[in-house]
Each structure stands twice: as C-alpha cells, then as structure tokens.
Design goal:
Elements lengths: L10 H25 L7 E2 L2 E2 L3 H4 L8 H13 L5 H9 L1 H7 L8 H6 L2 H8 L2 H15 L2 E2 L4 E2 L10 E3 L7 H10 L2 H17 L10 E4 L6 E3 L13 H18 L2 H18 L21 H17 L2 H21 L28 H15 L7
Antiparallel strand pairs: 1-2, 3-4, 5-6, 6-7
Helix pairs in contact: 1-15, 3-4, 3-15, 4-5, 7-8, 9-10, 11-12, 11-13, 12-13, 13-14, 13-15
Pfam families: Glyco_hydro_88
InterPro entries: 6-hairpin_glycosidase_sf, 6hp_glycosidase-like_sf, Glyco_hydro_88, UG_Glycosaminoglycan_Hydrolase
GO molecular function: chondroitin hydrolase activity
C-alpha cells in the first residue's frame, strides 16, 4: 500500500534532501564514534553527559539512538553502525526485558527501533524473539472491557491510555505479520478504535491522556498531560496522532484511521503556519512565554510524508509540500550540524510545565533523519 515519496519529489526538493543527508551522515558518523553503545538523551553545551543506559535503562526514548544507528547502517551499508546498536540491544535492553516491572506500553518505541530493526535488516533470529516477547507484553496490557492498552504502571493509573500509544501499536501489527496470529493485530485495532473515539477531537486536535474506569471501561476524563492544561493542544500529541493513525491505516486499510490522520494533520499544519514551521509546545498555550518544541515538527513531518505515500495522487502534493516546509524550517532554524558537537535538533522541549525547554533531545534527531532518508528512498521502514 502506498507510493514512495522519493518517486514524487521535485528536483529542487531532491537536491535539498541530498544536501541535508550529507550533513546528517557527517554528524551521525562523528556521534557514533564518540557515543558508541552509550544511550544519549539531552545534550548540554554540545555534549551528551548522561548515559541513559545507566541512569534509566528502561526510559522510553532509549530505542531512538539504536534506531539512528540502524537507519544509518541501512542508508550507508557501513557495518560500524551495527556494532553499537547490537551491544545496546543485547545488554541494556535485555536487562530491561528481564525486569518485568519496567515494561509499559512504550515497548514499541524501545524495540521496534532496536531488536525488530535488527531482525528486519539482518534476519537476526534472536532479535525476532526479543520483538515477539515484548509484543506479547504489550498485548498483555490490553483491557478487554475498555478496549484500550494501559499506558503506565503506577498505582491508580490502571485506566490510563495516551495518544503516544499509536506509535507503539505497530509492534503488534508486526507480530501478527510474523506469526500469523491475528490476536496481536486485533488488540491493536481495538485500541486504535478507542483512541479514535476518545483522543481525537472534532477539530483535529487531540487529548494527550484519556482515563477510563478499568472495571467498566467507562470514559472518565481527559486530564492535563505534557501540554499547557486539560483541553489544550500539546503539539507532540498531535504529531503522534498524525503519524500513528496514518500507520494504523497502512497496516489495516481502515479508512477511518486515514481520515483521522488527515484531520489531525490539517489542524497541525494550520497551527505551525502561524510560527513558520516550528511548533509551539502547546498550540493553545499563552502568548508569552513563547515556548517551542521542534520534536513535534520532526514527528509531524515524518507523518506527513507517510500521508503523502498513502493518499490518492491528487492529494499527495499537499502533504509533501507541508512536510518540506516543516523540515526546511527545522534545518534552517533549529539544527546544529557541527560534527564536533553532540545533539542535532535544538529547540526541543519535553513538556510545557517544569520541563527542559529549548534543548537538543535525541528522538527529534531520529525523526529528522528518517524523514530526510525517506525523501531519498533510503530509509528502512521500522514502523
């Protein structure tokens, strides 16, 4: 299903992508040599000071550095990217698998971009087993009464689900493809239906968190999350919605998911039109202080590329052009391409309140890299 965006790219955009890709290759080659099998998160003054493998092995972003390494391995064929990715998979992440209490709904982010990527690109059988193991854990978090996948493990949050989950359920679709067992994909579809009904608002904005009674499945509330307030519009949540529902459509062919992805995308594009392509942390935040989150822009651009590959031909240019506008804004205004410094995408903010504001965060780098490689037809399909 779908047509590669690289087949649709005008010459000037293809030339732009080639130029940025060359800068990305230089940046990530240098980071590979400095970072190796440590797991980066936030760079401070051009240096990744924390090793998340030691600080918080099960942190939900710990799959993105392996994902960068696997994307670079696929794009360049250089085996030196494979070695640190494998070390992370076989040491840090295996330790997380062994510590069951550390596993939550973010196993997709962690293992799609590490073990499942390894299986897809090298046919490493042990990696396939790891992927199926954590897919079973994710399916086991499904609440059959409320038809949702539980997000986190804290007491009192048994009925919580979040929009980010739409990027984790591709692990379940993969598990069905691998095993022929329809239960994994059925859990993913039922969860996506619940997210569609309770997360996506009529105007295309999204709730971050939705809470259900875990015994009855009854919807209770949509509290504030990482955005400004309850009822506001956390931009990264919108970006997860664009990409996540588009992927759900790719895996199922269910037009309702495609329509949802398009509705969220149109809302997102209308909002970033006001800020030149770099998203605010929350599209409904106060006018001051003006706090940005370039992560949301990178994720949304990747999702817009996904849409450009899925929609009918007459619609493709719209999504492709918006993806290009956003990517050019990020690379022009929010990137440090200096190979001697760690951290690529700047202006990243993890949340509106009490968060780290306008810093480089590694998973923005992943989505920017994946987007640019997709423009060239060189990206591995890891979702």
């Amino acid at each position: 299903m779908g047509t590669s965006i690289s087949d649709q790219l005008p010459p000037e955009d293809a030339a732009w992508a080639a130029g940025v890709a060359a800068r990305l290759e230089a940046k990530f080659a240098a980071e590979r040599d400095r970072i190796g099998s440590r797991i980066p998160y936030i760079a401070v003054n051009g240096t990744y000071e924390e090793n998340m493998a030691e600080v918080f092995p099960g942190w939900w972003t710990n799959g993105f550095w392996p994902g960068i390494l696997w994307q670079m391995f696929h794009a360049t064929g250089d085996p030196s990217y494979m070695t640190p990715a494998r070390i992370i998979e076989e040491t840090t992440l295996d330790d997380v698998i062994s510590a069951y209490e550390k596993l939550d709904h973010d196993v997709g982010f962690l293992w799609l971009l590490s073990a499942v990527a390894d299986w897809r690109l090298t046919r490493n059988e042990r990696s396939r087993t790891r992927g199926l193991h954590v897919a079973t854990v994710l399916a086991g978090r499904f609440n059959p009464v409320g038809r949702f996948i539980r997000a986190w493990n804290e007491l009192g949050r048994e009925g919580w689900a979040i929009v980010d989950s739409m990027m984790n359920i591709p692990l379940l679709f993969w598990a069905t493809d691998e095993t022929g067992d329809p239960r994994f994909a059925e859990v993913a579809r039922q969860h996506a239906d619940t997210m569609l009904a309770n997360v996506v608002r009529p105007d295309g904005s999204c709730n971050h968190i939705v809470c259900f009674d875990p015994l009855t499945g009854e919807f209770q509330e949509a509290p504030a999350g990482q955005g400004y307030a309850a009822g506001s519009s956390w931009s990264r949540g919108q970006a997860w919605g664009v990409f996540g529902f588009a992927r759900a459509y790719r895996h199922t062919g269910d037009e309702r998911y495609l329509d949802a992805a398009k509705r969220i995308a149109h809302y997102f594009c209308a909002q970033v039109a006001l800020t030149g392509g770099i998203a605010l942390v929350d599209f409904r935040q106060p006018a001051e202080p003006k706090v940005f989150d370039a992560i949301a822009s990178c994720v949304a651009a990747d999702g817009l590329i996904e849409l450009a590959e899925l929609v009918p031909e007459a619609e493709r240019a719209f999504y492709r052009q918006w993806a290009m506008l956003i990517l050019k804004a990020v690379t022009d205004k929010a990137c440090d391409f200096d190979p001697s410094r760690d951290g690529l995408v700047q202006l990243c903010s993890d949340k509106y309140h009490e968060g780290r504001i306008h810093v480089p965060i590694v998973y923005a780098d992943y989505f920017l890299l994946e987007s640019v490689l997709r423009l060239q037809g060189r990206a591995a399909d890891l979702w």
